[in-house]
């Protein structure tokens, strides 16, 4: 059982202008808002557009549909291999951020949100971790890619791949206050399994002390699940 404690603050305020007004994925500041994770101090997503739903028409465009030959087990295996990877003291230095900053998707995100690719190198990276795993396994068309958790969730929803059942390999989106609104999403990871006791096991990036970790989360904090179309 996780004991309640004050959130651990590890990152300075992120300058929103560096990436544009709509990008704050898994944000964590030195002055934590009321809806920060009261237990773990994990990632936050705070933008006015997220709260008003104005990003609904700015979804990531699905990649050209490839043959579906990647399984949930393969995706989870690669995600698990990343456990223990830690960000540096500046909140950067991970291969997930470096990959995203140099990706086509970063250019598309900048066109949407403004900013510069280098800003991603020290930006919160939970969604970049999920996107990187999808890319590296060849499942990008199924997993999607974005650095902004709300947009990523809406991509699943708009493609008819959104629901409330925990399935291995699903992309899980969290709001620490228990909200079920997509605009309230603050964090993202992969489902490992439903523990059948009101919790799920997950693999997440940029959680805890800026690590990739396997966690146990209460379902009450889940906004919903995105379902990649994995091979059987």
TrEMBL record:
<protein>
    <submittedName>
        <fullName>CHAP domain-containing protein</fullName>
    </submittedName>
</protein>
<feature type="signal peptide">
    <location>
        <begin position="1"/>
        <end position="36"/>
    </location>
</feature>
<dbReference type="InterPro" id="IPR007921">
    <property type="entry name" value="CHAP_dom"/>
</dbReference>
<feature type="domain" description="Peptidase C51">
    <location>
        <begin position="122"/>
        <end position="206"/>
    </location>
</feature>
<dbReference type="Pfam" id="PF05257">
    <property type="entry name" value="CHAP"/>
</dbReference>
<keyword id="KW-0732">Signal</keyword>
């Amino acid at each position: 059982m996780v004991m309640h404690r004050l959130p651990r603050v590890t990152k300075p305020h992120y300058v929103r202008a560096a990436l544009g007004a709509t990008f704050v994925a898994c944000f964590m500041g030195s002055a934590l808002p009321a809806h920060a994770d009261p237990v773990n101090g994990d990632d936050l997503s705070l933008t006015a557009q997220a709260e008003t739903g104005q990003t609904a028409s700015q979804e990531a465009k699905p990649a050209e549909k490839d043959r579906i030959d990647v399984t949930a087990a393969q995706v989870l295996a690669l995600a698990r291999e990343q456990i223990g990877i830690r960000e540096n003291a500046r909140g950067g230095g991970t291969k997930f951020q470096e990959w995203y900053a140099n990706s086509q998707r970063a250019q598309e995100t900048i066109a949407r949100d403004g900013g510069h690719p280098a800003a991603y190198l020290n930006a919160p990276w939970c969604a970049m971790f999920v996107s990187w795993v999808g890319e590296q396994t060849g499942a990008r068309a199924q997993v999607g890619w974005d650095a902004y958790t709300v947009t990523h969730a809406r991509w699943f929803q708009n493609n008819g791949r959104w629901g409330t059942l925990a399935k291995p390999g699903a992309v899980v989106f969290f709001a620490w206050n228990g909200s079920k609104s997509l605009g309230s999403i603050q964090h993202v990871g992969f489902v490992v399994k439903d523990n059948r006791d009101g919790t799920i096991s997950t693999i997440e990036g940029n959680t805890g002390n800026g690590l990739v970790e396997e966690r146990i989360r209460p379902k009450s904090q889940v906004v919903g699940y995105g379902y990649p179309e994995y091979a059987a």
